[in-house]
Amino acid sequence: MNRYPEIEFDTKENIKLYQEKELRKALKYLINNSAFYQKMFRNNNINLSEINTIEDLQKIPFTEKKDLQLYNDDFLCVPKNKIIDYITTSGTLGDPVTFAMTDKDLDRLAYNEKISFLCTGTNSDNIVQLMTTLDKRFMAGLAYFLGLRELGAGVIRVGNGIPELQWDTIKRINPDTIMCVPSFILKIIDYAEKNNIDYKSSSIKKIVCIGESLREQDFSFNLLSQKIKEKWDVELYSTYASTEMATTFAECEYGCGGHHHPELIICEFIKEDGTSAKEGEVGELVITSLGVEGMPLLRFKTGDLVSYYSEPCKCGRNTIRVSPVVGRLNQMIKYKGTTLYPPAIYDVLDNTPYVENYVIFVRTNSSGMDDVIVKIGSRNQDYKHIKDLKDRFRAHIRVAPSIEFESIEKIHSINFPQTSRKPVKFIDER
To answer: Mapping DSSP to helix (H, G, I), strand (E, B) and coil, where does residue 83 land?
Structure first.
C-alpha cells in the first residue's frame, strides 16, 4: 500500500520518453472517441502522426474553459451508461462545468490521491480527519476518501465547518492528520482557545492543506502559515489541484513545491505572449490529461499562474515541482500602477488579528480603472484599524485598497452562500 511510483524517481530522460509514449496513446483515444477534438483536428488540419513529442504539442490549439462551457457534451468519450459519477467545477473561473467520470476514472482519481498523500508522508498507519465536503458534486472530498482508502489509512468523514464537531471527533477517535483549508485551522484554534480545549496536546501532528497557499514564491511560509505555526506546532503540507486535471501537486517533507505526477498529466507553462515560460518564470499552467476515459483534455488552459522547477528534489524525485499559485489569470487586478492577485491580499488579511472575516470586491471606476474595496468583519470596529490595515497593505503589496467595516454576520453570509462549496472571498464586478 505504501509504495511510491517508480516513474517519479526515474531519470528526466526516461520520464519524458514515458510521457511521450502515453501522449501518443491519448491522442489516438481522442481521435477515436472525442467529438470536440475530432472537429478541432479536422478544422486545424492536424496530422496526429506528426505529434510525437511534448514539443510537438505546440502545433495544437489550446482548449479553454469556455470550450467546456459551450460544448460540454462533445468532450464526453464514452456512452452515458459507462458514467459512474457526475462532478462539477466550483465555478471559480466562471459558470461551473460538468465532468463525467467512469469507473476507470475513479480508480485513477484514487491512485492520484494515494500517491499524493504518500508524498506528504501519509501512509496506512495514519488516521485522517477530512474537513472537506463529500457532497454538492464536489470532486475533492470524494478524491481524498478514495485515495486514503486505496492507501489503507483510517478516514473520518466529518465534512467542513462546525468546529465543535471537529474537536469532539478529535477527542473521540484521536486522528493524527487533518485535511482542510488552512484558514479554517485558525477558526478551530480560535474555538479551542475560547472553550479551553488543549489543542496543543491533541493527537493531531500533521495538517495537509487545500485551496489556499501556505508558501511564498521562494517556498518560505507565508503570513497565514506563520500564524498557524506560531499557535500550533504541527507539520503543514500544501497541495494544489483542480477538477479539470483530476491530478494533485503535493509537497514532500522538504516543502519546495508540489511534485508532478508524470503518469497522470503533461504540463506546459505558457506566458501571456503564447511562448513557453522558462524555469522560474511565471506562466499559465496548461495540462494534457493521461489515462482519463470519460472526458480527457488536451492542452487545457487552467488559468492558474505558477512557476516550475526541474532540479532534483532532496526526497529523490526527479519530477518537476510547481510553485504556489501566484493568482488566476482572469483575477489579475491593476491597481494604482501595481499588478495584484487576490492571494496577496488574503495573506495580509489572514494575518491581521482584529479581522474576523472579509470579502474583496473589484469594480471598474469612472476612469475605466480597477477599484479594490475590502469589507471586513471585526468585533472591535475601531477606525484606527483602518489606518493600521492600510499600513500593513502598503508594507506587503505597496498599495492600500479602500477598507469598509461590515458586521461579521453579513460578511459570513457573503462568504458562505448556500450553493457554494468553497468560501467566497473575492467578487469581481468588472
So the answer is: strand
Sheet of strand 283-289, all strands in order from the earlier edge strand to the far edge:
265-270, 283-289, 300-306, 327-328
Q: Is the pLDDT of residue 337 over 80?
A: no
- Give the global pTM: 0.84
* Residues 142-167: tens digit of each pLDDT: 999 999 999 999 999 998 889 999 99
Cell (9 digits) for 294: 470519460
- The secondary structure of residue 221, as a DSSP letter, is B
Amino acid at 363: R
Q: Which amino acid would we find at residue 61?
A: P
Domains of the chain (ranges; CATH) run 1-327 (3.40.50.12780), 332-428 (3.30.300.30)
> Is residue 1 pLDDT above 80, yes or no?
no
Over residues 385-410, the mean pLDDT reads 90
Q: In what order do the strands lie in the sheet with 177-180?
A: 154-157, 127-130, 177-180, 206-209, 235-242, 247-250, 258-259, 321-322, 308-309
Q: How far is residue 128's CA from residue 109's CA, in Å, rounded to a whole number?
A: 18
- Decide if 416 contacts 357 (C-beta within 8 A): no
d(CA 288, CA 304): 15
Cell 500517491 appears where?
A: 115
CA 241/CA 90 separation, integer angstroms:
12
CA distance linking residue 129 with residue 386, whole number of Å: 38
